[in-house]
Structure to design on (818 residues):
């Protein structure tokens, strides 16, 4: 009975390829939402864990602590206050569902609304994970191009009209209006108001992803779409991954109870991890307001390090903006550079990057674009990593033309 | 734009009913896998959190810490050693995938193997959550009756033969061989060997759920099916929910890499919560071996309290065994009692219970049976709760006949 068992014929159709074995992080790690290690508030997290466990540790004996399936109530109460202050959102703690990361939020909302063949509207350049999930569901994904403020509403309106002519109502418009991923764009309030007007006109729901909205250098941000619409026709998701630590898998959904109750009915996981919620709530009540600006200062400096290194190594061959927040930079290389191929060659040299095509519905447009995340590597690693990347790029594609080493000496 | 938005037409087909608002736990809580609150090792968890965060807190800045997507390596190493000692399993830490509770394990394994119309074999009485998930997937669920040692192999063999005649190969045989849920049965090694032989003969995979296997009064248990088959044709899941605390959502899958790599490819959640994994690993290395016997002593005493209370209140109208482990008792009431109706009436009186039909594929057999979980309520609450339950049962169904109050005085 210990002969090898062939399980392959048992696999459900469409099962993805097996994962590769993990061999550690690359030396120059410019992918994923990893964050700055020195800004993890270790001692404050220890203090928070100690205090909350001493006070409420015995409640770990029950699923959902004493808070029920929406998640640890003090964390929802903190969020209710924070969302009011930061994003202008009026929501009760019972209009917030804690999720195991915002990725579970994406899954739950898709599970509620999207089935094979459904149409959804997203930003042409968007979070790769959202794109992967929608493709796996067999959704018809319509990408709308972006400008410096995000979603181009002229194209959106035209697409909605085209779809209406065909009798198609999209399930939602997925947008990251505040520090867009990957472009870093922040949508102003006037455009937000116009977007809400168009969505209402076509009766389409908005799915607002605010995972990065705490990371704004100025600390000031427009009101969220959810706030401006008073929650009508908008589902909102957020996360602590970017503002505190990504390995803590804690995200949240904000929605009116009519929708949230439905989403909760789909969340068949016996609750999200309680210890992370307890420690976060305890930490955030005291320290969130101070922690985030400190983190942003580090991130803003790392962004400038990355921009300088790119300018130094690539010269005018790399085009990029100066985003006002976030942890990534969206970069255009010369047309002859296929960043999917570049990513493979770079990885062999220890540099990981997100090729544009994984982050866009417009494969041609994204072909020579890439995303670099700057939050995790230390400044010296950023500089060295960009140097290695430029070398690989020169070897594989003949650009950048100038040799950085010569220029620097 | 703040007019009410009607999202109902957007729902995906088959969306379950909205969740009800949570109103706190019932006074006499005999459902769910809740555990004994006094046995939550609060101070040791604080010490563990302090030590591990001090040493490795900065690694929270990266998804997956420094351990990759399988989960925190020291926890997998602890499990590898524990599974060897307790269950006889030889597995490397890279053959273990940490999941967000064992429910995610169920979901991932189903997602790998089961699609609408597929046949799966399960124990006739089984974990209600597993049953719900399979029904939602549209699987053809074949229940095999149980005896005092679990799965009846004569019926299993007959069913497999019938299916073979029809050209149907089941995707797996789902079994909880060690402290079966809900019957508490423990399958002996001889029957395990025979089960493996039959499974191999029909080329069917075994899905072994060991979520309760730490909770055995004697501390001694048969080797796991996974161990006996050297992992060939068996997928194994386990959990810390029952041995440490259910609100910590940490489970695990053990499988050969050919299967585990596939499952990992499906786990698109950016990892399970890191803090819980870190704290558990730190705690378990030092305290697991001492903690579990202490917990078992409490649970064994609570079981006897429940059995005594049932005997006192129901007399011979309640039939039940004396399980050698676990946190629940499976009870037969007189035929005229429909436990689904009893559950509703009891809840109104503050007593929650699991009606048998939710825990069985044989609705007629399970109609007058129920599951009571005894781990969470204190002994006095168990006694009082059973008294209230007997009152409700008498009022609704005329049994138990004798009045406990009279007998006791």
């Amino acid at each position: 009975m210990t002969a090898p068992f062939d399980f392959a014929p048992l696999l459900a159709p469409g099962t993805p390829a097996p994962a590769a074995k993990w061999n550690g992080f690359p030396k120059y790690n410019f992918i994923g939402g990893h964050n700055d290690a020195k800004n993890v508030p270790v001692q404050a997290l220890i203090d928070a864990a100690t205090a909350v466990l001493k006070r409420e540790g015995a409640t770990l004996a029950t699923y959902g602590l004493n808070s029920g399936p929406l998640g640890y109530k003090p964390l929802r109460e903190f969020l209710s206050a924070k969302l009011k202050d930061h994003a202008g959102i009026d929501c009760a703690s019972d209009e917030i569902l804690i999720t195991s990361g915002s990725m579970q939020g994406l899954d739950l909302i898709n599970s509620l609304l999207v089935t094979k063949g459904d149409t959804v509207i997203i930003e042409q350049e968007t979070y790769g994970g959202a794109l992967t999930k929608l493709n796996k569901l067999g959704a018809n994904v319509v990408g709308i191009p972006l400008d410096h403020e995000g979603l181009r509403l002229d194209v959106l309106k035209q697409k909605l009209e085209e779809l209406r002519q065909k009798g198609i109502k999209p399930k939602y418009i997925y947008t990251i209006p505040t520090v867009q991923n990957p472009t870093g764009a922040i949508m102003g309030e006037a455009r937000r108001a116009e977007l809400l007007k168009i969505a209402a006109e076509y009766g389409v729901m908005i799915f607002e992803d605010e995972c990065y909205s705490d990371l704004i250098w100025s600390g000031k941000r427009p009101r969220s779409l959810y706030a401006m619409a008073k929650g009508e026709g908008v589902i909102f998701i957020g996360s602590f991954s970017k503002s505190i630590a990504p390995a803590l898998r804690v995200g949240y959904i904000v929605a009116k109870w009519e929708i949230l109750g439905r989403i909760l009915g789909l969340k068949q996981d016996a609750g999200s991890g309680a210890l992370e919620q307890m420690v976060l709530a305890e930490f955030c009540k005291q320290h969130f307001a101070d922690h985030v600006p400190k983190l942003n200062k580090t991130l803003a400096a790392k962004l400038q390090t990355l921009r300088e290194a790119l300018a130094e190594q690539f010269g005018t061959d790399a085009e990029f903006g100066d985003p006002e927040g976030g942890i990534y930079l969206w970069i255009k290389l010369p047309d002859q550079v296929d960043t999917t191929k570049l990513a493979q060659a770079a990885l062999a040299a220890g540099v990981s990057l997100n090729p544009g095509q994984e982050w866009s519905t417009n494969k041609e447009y994204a072909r020579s674009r890439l995303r670099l995340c700057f939050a995790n590597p230390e400044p010296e690693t950023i500089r060295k990593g960009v140097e290695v990347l430029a070398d690989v790029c020169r070897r594989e594609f003949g650009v950048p033309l100038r040799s950085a080493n010569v220029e620097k000496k």
Remarks:
- The longest strand of chain B covers residues 234-239.
- Chain B is about 40% helix and 15% strand.
